[in-house]
Automatic annotation (TrEMBL):
Keywords, alphabetical: Kinase, Serine/threonine-protein kinase, Signal, Transferase
Protein name per its UniProtKB record: Serine/threonine protein kinase
Superkingdom classification of source: Bacteria
Coiled coil: none
InterPro entries: AB_hydrolase_fold, MlaA
Naturally occurring in which organism (per UniProt): Stutzerimonas tarimensis
Secretion signal, residue range per the UniProt entry: 1-21
């Protein structure tokens, strides 16, 4: 009875601040279909102002972090024996923000370039980092090349960030910030937690954009979007290409811009929700195949590439990659991540691993740290039952919840950008 009374009292008299949520009628982002929003992003006329790329003082740099792999990796991997990153410099002293890419993505993908323009335009030095799940990071920076164990991924990222700071010692930095989108947002939370102990950066603000809450739930949701087997022989992709081709023929030109999908979806050739979901899921499946193939190859596990296989520049990797495509994220976890975790970290059940790699592991830290904020969308399909409840009770008013936008589709929408910069500026 006392426990019940305490629970009721907590619900009735709690002073915890509430998440900032927007009424759908007051939020001007136009795409109401989460799959369309994810693929189309923000129409150009609704994006926040950003500097042009040629107005940014930037350059690509490389780090030799795993020289021992330069001779152990196949010749095909020579471009990624050094880790590349991109730095955009302000003309004088300024805050620096590290930005971490999403699943399987390199530092220079489109979303990273857009976020760089947003933060650079607001006066930040910007460092763009590849995801720990990208093949270049796995080959050139990861100690164990088995991504998915969030604490270890954070340690790899932290070493990279320290090496960048040493390499760019002449850069005048007033304070450090951290941001990430999708899986990169989850990575940012674990990096921030690690920095509390190591104290190299003392991040002033940490911004998490559309993070997974339960990593296992999110990747299974993405895997389910692939509703047909990869090698069925189904002509799904040919059908999509044929529709897009007819659309461009009717327009009389090929104009690939942010508004393409919006216009395409208003035409007679529009794709169904199932087809849009298949496209998104296929991109994720390709990323997972890359992770499974690269981790197996670097660690010589023999699951996809035979241990004694000699790969040269002339070796076709297609047969191995086709085999990797059969392996979804559950397969990667079961065959590579879980056995590795049990051997190295004395791990137990899959449920225990899920708890350790998800935001659940940082619940107390996230609740206490006012320097961390989350921005998310209510219709993001990577979320599962209870995920938004977790974010609401953990983040309070540091959760900004938009009614639509899919998965990262509204990152460049002017209201979203304003909220990002307001948080970073305190």
């Amino acid at each position: 009875m006392l426990r019940l009374y305490a629970l009721l009292a907590g619900l009735l008299f709690s002073t915890a601040p509430l998440a900032t949520a927007f009424d759908p009628s007051d939020y001007g982002y136009p795409l109401t279909n989460p799959f369309e929003a994810t693929l189309a992003n923000t129409p150009a006329h609704l994006q926040a102002p950003m500097p042009a790329i040629d107005a940014i003082d930037q350059g690509d740099y490389s780090l030799r972090l795993r020289p021992e792999r330069e001779h152990s990796l196949p010749d095909n991997f020579w471009p990624v024996t050094s880790l590349q990153y991109r730095l955009a410099r302000q003309s004088g002293p300024a805050p620096l923000i590290f930005v971490i890419a999403g699943t399987g993505s390199r530092y220079d993908n489109g979303t990273m370039e857009s976020l760089k323009r947003v933060f650079y335009g607001a006066g930040y030095h910007v460092v763009q980092l590849s995801s720990p799940t990208s093949y270049d990071f796995m080959a050139a920076a990861s100690r164990l090349a088995t991504p998915g164990y969030s604490a270890e991924d954070a340690r790899d990222l932290y070493r990279v960030m320290q090496a960048i700071r040493a390499q760019q010692a002449d850069l005048a930095v007033t304070e450090f910030h951290l941001a990430g989108y999708s899986l990169g947002a989850l990575n940012a939370a674990f990096v921030s937690h690690l920095d509390e102990r190591l104290g190299q950066f003392a991040f002033k603000r940490v911004l998490m954009l559309n993070p997974p809450v339960n990593l296992s739930t999110s990747v299974r949701n993405l895997d389910r979007l692939v509703q047909t087997r990869v090698d069925t022989g189904d002509n799904f992709y040919e059908q999509v290409l044929e529709r897009v081709t007819r659309f461009f023929q009717e327009r009389g030109q090929i104009d690939l811009d942010e508004a393409l999908l919006v216009e395409f979806q208003r035409s007679d050739h529009r794709l169904s929700d199932e087809q849009l979901a298949m496209l998104i899921g296929s991109v994720f499946r390709l990323a997972v195949a890359d992770i499974a193939f690269t981790s197996d190859l670097i660690n010589r596990r023999g699951l996809i590439t035979p241990r004694d296989a000699r790969l040269t520049i002339g070796t076709s990797l297609e047969p191995f990659f086709r085999q990797a495509l059969w392996c979804d994220f559950d397969c990667y976890m079961t065959k590579q991540l879980v056995p590795w975790w049990r051997e190295r970290f004395d791990g137990g059940s899959l449920t225990q691993l899920t708890d350790q790699v998800s935001l659940y592991a940082l619940e107390d830290y996230l609740r206490e740290q006012t320097k961390i904020a989350v921005m998310h969308n209510a219709d993001d399909f990577i979320l599962g039952p209870g995920d938004l409840g977790f974010l609401r009770r953990t983040m309070g008013d540091r959760l900004t919840l938009y009614p639509r936008g899919g998965h990262c589709g509204n990152l460049l929408y002017r209201d979203n950008v304003n909220h990002m910069l307001e948080f970073l500026r305190g």
